[in-house]
Design goal:
Layout lengths: L11 E3 L2 E4 L2 E2 H8 L3 E5 H16 L5 E6 L6 H10 L2 E4 L2 H10 L6 E3 L6 H10 L3 E4 L2 H11 L6 E6 L28 H9 L4 E7 L9 H22 L5 E3 L17 H18 L6 E4 L3 H4 L3 E12 L5 E6 L8 H5 L5 E3 L11 E4 L8 E6 L9 E4 L20 E6 L2 E6 L4 H5 L6
Parallel strand pairs: 4-19, 5-6, 5-12, 6-7, 7-8, 8-9, 9-10, 10-11, 11-12, 14-16
Antiparallel strand pairs: 1-2, 2-3, 4-13, 13-14, 13-18, 15-18, 16-17, 19-20
The protein binds ligand LLP.
The site of ligand LLP has 21 residues, from helix 10 and helix 11.
C-alpha cells in the first residue's frame, strides 16, 4: 500500500498505523519523544549493497564511498564499514567519527575547500587514503605539511569540469563558476607542485557536478572530461591517474509520482564512459569511485512530528498544521523548496481531507515543511510522518530558537536502538557563557 520508492523497505500500514522495521511509529514516538528521526536498517544496508552490486556487475575496479555529509553518526559509519563501503568526510570531526566507528583509514577520502591545518594534519597523521584538494593554496599547505614524510600522502585533485547539472542552483557544483574545484587550467600548476613534493603521491582526479541528479548523461560527460584531463596530466607531467571519481549526486524521489533513477543504468553509464574514453586516450583503466550520500540515507529515514495545533481559515478548513519541529531539523524546504510526502502515522488509513500546509515551530515565515499535502483532517496529538527525511536533515540541523535537536533511532526486526540522543537544554546551555 505504501509506495516503497518513497518509504523505507520495511514500512507498512497495519490497522491504520505506520510500522517501520517492525516497530510501531506511535510507540517509538511515545518512547523517544518527537521530533524523532527513524532510520530503517534494512533499507540502509540494501541501498549500500545495491551500489556495490551494480558496480561489481560492470567488471571494472571500483569503490563506493558513502558521503558522510548527508548524515553521519557513529552507528551509521559502523554500518558503512560492515557493508564494505568507504567513506567521504569533509571535516576533522567527521574524520573522528569515522575513526570511532572503525572505518579503515585507507578507505577514506577527505574533501574540502577551506580546511584548517589541524584538520589536514589529522588526516595525514591518521593515514586517510586520499586528501582531495580543491585549491592551489591548500595544495601548497599540504605539500609543506607532508614534506619529509617517509610515507607520502595520497592526494586527488578536484576539478570544476564545466558541466552544468540540472538541479537546484544551490546544489549545482560542476559549472566553471562554482565555488568548488580547480579550474582545468590550474591543473598544470598543481601537477608541477605535486611532482616537486616528495611527501605527496598523486592518485587521481575528482569532480562532483551536483546533487539530486536524475540526468545520467551529464554524469557520463563528467567522466569524459576527467579522462581527458587525466590524459593531459599524463602527457604533460607524467602523472598517472589511478583513481577517477565523478562524485556522488544520484537523486532520490520524494513524491509518489516521481521515479527513482536506475542504479544499474547509472553504473553502466559511468563505466561505459570510462572505458570508452580511456580507450580513446590509450589510458589504463583507473579505479572508478563514486560517493553517494542522499541515495543511501534519504529513503531510510522517516521524521516523526507531533501535531501541536492548527490555523483555521474563515470557513473552518485547516490552513496550517503546526508541528513540533521544522526548519531547524529540516532546512531543505526553506533552502531549496524541497518537497516531501507525509502521512498521519496514527490514522494512516483515514480518508484524506483537502490539502493543507504543515508549518514548523520556528519563528520564520519560510518554516513550512510541506505545502498542499493531503492528509486526514488532523488534530493536536496526531503523529505526522515525513518520508525521505534521512538525508541533509539532521546533518544540517541547528538549535535555532534554542530548541534542542531531535533524537534518532535505528529500527530493525521490531527493535529500536537509539543512535543519536535528543539534545538537552543542558547541552545547549553548556556552550553559553554568562558575563
Ligand atoms: N561528493 C561530494 C564532493 C559532494 O560535495 C557531495 C555533496 C556528495 C559527494 C554527495 O552527494 P549526494 O549523493 O548526497 O547528492 N544540502 C543539500 C545537498 C548538498 C550536497 C553537497 N555535496 C541538500 O539538502 O540537497
Amino acid at each position: 500500500m505504501l509506495p516503497h520508492h518513497i518509504w523505507p523497505d520495511t514500512a507498512t500500514i497495519s490497522a491504520g498505523r505506520l510500522q517501520i522495521g517492525g516497530c510501531d511509529a506511535q510507540a517509538l514516538a511515545a518512547a523517544h519523544g518527537t521530533p524523532l528521526y527513524v532510520f530503517d536498517e534494512a533499507t540502509l544496508r540494501r541501498a549500500m549493497r545495491a551500489y556495490l552490486a551494480a558496480f561489481r556487475r560492470q567488471g571494472l575496479p571500483f569503490g563506493v564511498h558513502y558521503a558522510a555529509k548527508a548524515l553521519l553518526t557513529t552507528a551509521l559509519a559502523q554500518l558503512v564499514a560492515q557493508e564494505g563501503l568507504g567513506l567521504d568526510v569533509v571535516s576533522g570531526t567527521e574524520l573522528l567519527v569515522a575513526r570511532r566507528a572503525g572505518v579503515p583509514m585507507a578507505q577514506i577520502h577527505f574533501h574540502g575547500n577551506a580546511r584548517s591545518d589541524a584538520e589536514l594534519e589529522r588526516a595525514v597523521a591518521w593515514g586517510v587514503g586520499a586528501v582531495v584538494v580543491d585549491t592551489l593554496d591548500e595544495l601548497e599547505r599540504l605539500a609543506t605539511l607532508t614534506a619529509g614524510r617517509a610515507q607520502p600522502q595520497g592526494l586527488m585533485l578536484r576539478v570544476a569540469p564545466g558541466i552544468e547539472a540540472r538541479t537546484h542552483r544551490y546544489i549545482a557544483t560542476g559549472d566553471a563558476d562554482s565555488k568548488f574545484g580547480l579550474p582545468p587550467e590550474a591543473l598544470d600548476a598543481a601537477a608541477q607542485r605535486i611532482r616537486a613534493s616528495a611527501g605527496l603521491r598523486f592518485l587521481g582526479l575528482h569532480a562532483h557536478i551536483g546533487s539530486q541528479l536524475f540526468d545520467l548523461e551529464r554524469l557520463g560527460a563528467t567522466v569524459a572530461v576527467l579522462v581527458r584531463l587525466a590524459a593531459r596530466l599524463r602527457t604533460r607531467h607524467g602523472l598517472t591517474t589511478e583513481e577517477l571519481s565523478p562524485g556522488g549526486g544520484l537523486g532520490t524521489p520524494s513524491l509518489a509520482e516521481e521515479t527513482a533513477p536506475d542504479l544499474e543504468a547509472y553504473a553502466a553509464t559511468l563505466s561505459a564512459s570510462l572505458r570508452q574514453h580511456c580507450a580513446a586516450h590509450a589510458l589504463p583503466l583507473p579505479r572508478l569511485t563514486v560517493e553517494p550520500g542522499r541515495s543511501i540515507v534519504a529513503r531510510a529515514g522517516v521524521a516523526l512530528y507531533t501535531v501541536m495545533g492548527r490555523k483555521l481559515a474563515a470557513d473552518g478548513s485547516i490552513r496550517y498544521l503546526y508541528v513540533d519541529g521544522g526548519m531547524a531539523d529540516n532546512l531543505r524546504p526553506a533552502l531549496y523548496h524541497a518537497r516531501y510526502t507525509a502521512l498521519l502515522a496514527n490514522r494512516a488509513s483515514a480518508p484524506p481531507g483537502p490539502p493543507v500546509a504543515v508549518a514548523g515551530r520556528y519563528c520564520e515565515s519560510g518554516d513550512v515543511l510541506l505545502r498542499d499535502v493531503r492528509l486526514p483532517p488532523a488534530h493536536p496529538g496526531d503523529l505526522l510522518a515525513v518520508a525521505t527525511a534521512g538525508a541533509y536533515t539532521l546533518s544540517m540541523a541547528s538549535t535555532y530558537n534554542l530548541v534542542p535537536r531531535p533524537a534518532a533511532v535505528l529500527v530493525a526486526a521490531g527493535r529500536a536502538r537509539l543512535i543519536q540522543r535528543r539534545e538537552t537544554e543542558a547541552d545547549v546551555l553548556a556552550r553559553d557563557v554568562p558575563l
